TrEMBL record:
This is Ovarian-specific serine/threonine-protein kinase Lok. It comes from Cryptotermes secundus. It comes from the Eukaryota. Residues 434-461 are annotated as: Disordered. The lineage of its organism: Eukaryota, Metazoa, Ecdysozoa, Arthropoda, Hexapoda. PROSITE patterns: FHA_DOMAIN, PROTEIN_KINASE_DOM, PROTEIN_KINASE_ST. The keyword Nucleotide-binding applies. Keywords: ATP-binding, Nucleotide-binding.
Amino acid sequence: MMWSQSLPDTQNAREEIFSQEYENANVWGRLYATKKKFPSLDLSDDEYTIGRAQDCNITISYLEVKEDVLQTISKRHCKIIKVTPEVYLEDYSSNGTYVNSEKIGKGNRRILKNNDQISLAWPHFKVYVYVDASDNNENFPEEVRSKYVITRELGAGACGKVYLVFEKKSCDRYAMKVVQKKCFDSADRQNRCNSDKTMNEVNILKALKHPCIIRVEHIVDTPDAIYIVLELMEGGELFDRIQDRRQLKESEAKLIFYQIAQAVKYLHDNKITHRDLKPENILLSSEKRETLIKVSDFGLSKFVNSQSIMKTFCGTPLYVAPEVLETKGMGSYTAQVDIWSLGIILFICLSGYPPFSAEYQSLPLNEQIMRGAYSFQRRYWRGVSPDAIDLIRKMLTVDPKNRVTVDEVLCHRWLEDKWLEETFQELIKEEQMASQGGVPVDEHSPPRKQLRLDGEDTHTV
């Protein structure tokens, strides 16, 4: 990113800009970058222009975006204007400037509100979140507010919400899940009041390191809620990919499933049972067919009891093992519940429909699950290999004692595939390089002085 004012392009510069955020009384707003190579910025002047022209306040070049993306950015694409008490975003580009995915239109302006998201050229190319400097996040505990700026709501469920947050010192992006303790039963709430026990569990979660598990950055425990700050994944959920494509190709499903199984093995080896595995909790690094996945929400198994998960987080028992349904979440059971969920996930990936459903009229849903009453409909399974079907059968075994373990899953002949392991290792290597700023160079890329964004941060977001 090139600037009209002289700023060193270093992490230290970013920290310097934001270390004085409370000292500069003239700051009326902030732009928090949602792209890795775009800088975040305090707003104190009356106008800020964004575009390709060198005299723009924020100049976009091929150092930040790929050349085909850069061609869609106008020399003067848009302008942020402060006219007290309002803040406006004015669109100068025929390609469009978007606020919350809605096009402003060339020559038009729109009032910017707190936590609005700004996109350039097309709705999915999101570059900034605008934050009103007067918003001090008073609804969040001091321990959270002192370290993070809480911006947009990313999602919501029965027991809490997920927010996009920015770490104040570095401006790095994270997802923060807020879980309300009212979702716990009385015995579990009492356990949660034991701060020593909670912090012990927090330390266990933060110590977990695996390429296919969402990284836990920070957990804040309060009397009413638990705030879990997590690595941010922007490639979408496995659920959405299945919805869009209906049926995944077997090679694509195999790569995704293999990674999920690797994550589950790591959790089980560390004496942690996920208990809520489902496509909504499998996050993708990119929209490519061959992409790294990460299992999320495993931390909730340390904080929420099984009955709460079954009632609240699942909503439907679609992914819940028979032994959990049989005791209504009150009995004791083993990590084998995760294997059942793995079987459901693989079944849906390969066929596009669930093995059990309330829409099937033969038996009530709970009875279907407890009997293991499912079938492989020929028209959906015609092109799927017998080995894949065999693995599903072994995972969807009603008796957990006869169900395969995660080690047996990973040793199954369907996963005996040299390409699988090589591709997995390459995806890990790519992520490590990207996290260190070492994105591989495209041979067709223009000459450059510093690293560009990878594909995740261009038009494929």
